[in-house]
Amino acid sequence: MKWRIMKLEVHDAYLNMGTDQAIMESVEAGKSAPTIRFYKWMPSAVSIGRFQSMQEEVDIEKCKELGVSYIRRVTGGGAVYHSNSGEITYSVIAPVSIISKDIRESYRIICGWVIDGLSKLGINASFAPINDIVVDGKKISGNAQTRSKGIILQHGTILYDLDIKTMFTVLRVSEEKISDKLIKSVEDRVTCARNYADISLEGLYEKLLEGFTVGKEFGFNSCTEDEMKRADTLAKSVYSSDSWNFDR
Amino acid sequence: MGVFLKGFARFKVPGGKLVEVKLDYSDSIKNVQILGDFFLYPEDALKDIERSLLNLKVDESEESIARIVSDVVKKKSITLIGITPNAIAKTIKMAVGK
């Protein structure tokens, strides 16, 4: 099984989520190889889980003020702040048959690739079921998966740097909670690669790429023209629409 | 159109995820939305669970609500991760103040 690897790209929130879905459809149709892609978000964005309420989770006015996008994912899980300079997101899109039928096990397998990448930086991370990766008990990566017609889409974020203040400005937490006390407690629960390794974001990407590809047959390629067109359509018609983003 | 009460409750499933229930009710449930950071496959099937709770008497026992949710889960081959029928039932009872 030959994998397609897509090198680190930067897109806005709508195209990032549209691309994941376009690739998923293409893999399902047998038109594309199983794919691993790496990407960043420009502008920075908040993504919420499929079953969360946008109004409840996100301070829309603050997002507008700061130029931060907001989007609903197709996957469950919680709200995430995707800082343009503070994290790398990956997606794995592949037939269930080559990962695992068992959902919990497939989280473990794919998160294992993140853990392998981090280990190449000397970061000793471990899988924390259901969907987290932790270092010294602190979360460094959150992951979420959906499945459709025999295809897995799992995406996840690996924190490079922390900007807790902005995170809690755009995520809906009352003013009084953005106190030093809360920030301290979040710092006790969340960490990032920079806390453990003197590397650039590019350096983190290189090691993640190694972790994701070791032992796999693969080639570098980008989206096909059809995937790009479909991603663009989905970005415009679904992922940037209020009917999708404010569905709940 | 009657005037409905609004209910909201939040419950963190031990070892699991957060479940929230928002509903309109009188002596029975008129509208219900289940929210949270859990996983549920296939995702569209959450609407089937929500539909199964409409018009349910608010005095219905937690066990009976859990059973109704369980039945939908089985019938629609739903996989729940980080959430359970019992947790949904418990949160609904909390939201109607029972």
Fold and architecture overview:
The complex is a heterodimer of chains A (248) and B (98). Chain A is built from 9 helices and 11 strands. Chain A is an alpha/beta fold. Chain A has one domain: BirA Bifunctional Protein, domain 2 (2-Layer Sandwich). In chain A, the strands form 2 sheets. Chain A has an 8-stranded mixed sheet, sandwiched between helices. A 3-stranded mixed sheet of chain A has the order 4-3-5, covered by helices on one side. In chain A, α1 packs across α8 and α4 packs across α7. Chain A is globular and about 50 Å long. By secondary structure, chain B is α+β, with helices and mostly antiparallel strands. Chain B has a single domain, classed as 2-Layer Sandwich (Enolase-like, domain 1). In chain B, 33% of the residues lie in helices and 31% in strands. Chain B is built from 3 helices and 5 strands, in the order ββββααβα. In chain B, the strands form 2 sheets. Chain B has a 3-stranded antiparallel sheet, covered by helices on one side. In chain B, α2 packs across α3. The longest helix of chain B is centred in the last third of the chain and has 14 residues. Chain B is globular, with a radius of gyration of 12 Å. Chain B starts with a strand and ends with a helix. At the A-B interface, β9 of A face β3 and β4 of B.
